[in-house]
Amino acid sequence: MSKKKFYVVWNGRKKGVFTSWKVCKAQIDGFEGAQYKSFADLNEAEIASTKNYEDYKGKNTKKPTLSADEKATYGTPNLESISVDAACSGNPGKMEYRGVLTHNKKEIFIKGPFKNGTNNIGEFLALVHGIALLKSKNKEDIPIYSDSRIAMSWVKQKRCKTNMHFDASNKDLLELIKRAEKWLKENTYNNPILKWETKAWGEIPADFGRK
Q1: Is the pTM here over 0.90, yes or no?
Q2: Rounded to whole angstroms, how far apart are CA atoms 59 and 188?
Q3: What are the DSSP E strand ranges found in 91-207?
Q4: 45-55 pLDDT, tens digit each
């Protein structure tokens, strides 16, 4: 099975983080002075996109393979949980998010696609959607897994700290963000928000599977 990669374009027709080589190639193919690199981890790619290309030029960004002993240090995920994830074609680009039951990947909600969104926004909205759904069902003991530390921190701060530009094309997404922030400020929850350890457990069950 091929492993998912994430592509950062620092200089191209369109800059940002891309989740497919086809989309990335369209930004740099034939573009003079193109600067780009692939990453095995989304969080690393997003961090890299805020820095300079020279910081990563010539460096190995492949995810190291963990030994059995190293994997054992992460334990195993709690299957009695839900998992959330987002997918974005370009960053910004067409975005959607969903939540599934961790143990069997049964989809319990899906939203989008939205125009001109980002992966981080989707991850944030997915977490809030999952939290609100479990609270409405009086299941506040059920953990929620996310593979985005950025989204987890935004939920903790009760604010979607995106730099995304909003206009008529994505005003529905902005309204959804405001609703999510309002819900966080007006409600409490007890569900544990847990980091999905991709390098030890593989892709999160809610992953859209787009290579």
Answers
A1: no
A2: 43
A3: 93-101, 107-117, 144-146, 193-195
A4: 888 888 888 87
> Where in the chain does DSSP place strands (E)?
6-11, 16-18, 35-39, 82-90, 93-101, 107-117, 144-146, 193-195
Structure tokens belonging to residue 52 = 């300079």
In whole angstroms, give the CA distance from residue 160 to residue 180.
9
Token pair in block for residue 180? 């999510």
User: CA–CA separation, 199 vs 73, rounded Å?
Assistant: 12
Rounded CA gap, 17 and 6, in Å?
7
Cα–Cα distance measured from residue 180 to residue 210, given in angstroms and rounded to the nearest whole number: 26
Q: How far apart are CA 36 and CA 21, in angstroms?
A: 11
CA proximity to 115, closest of 94, 90, 88: 94
Cβ(122)–Cβ(88) below 8 Å: yes
For residues 21 and 204, what is the distance between their CA atoms, to the nearest angstrom? Answer: 21
Q: Which tokens belong to 1? A: 């099975």
Task: Write out pLDDT tens, residues 132-141.
Answer: 999 999 999 9
142 close to 80: Cβ distance less than 8 angstroms: yes
**Token pair of 75 as six digits:** 């334990």
Direct distance between the N- and C-terminal alpha carbons of the chain, in angstroms, rounded to an integer: 10
Contact 118, 163 (CB under 8 A): no
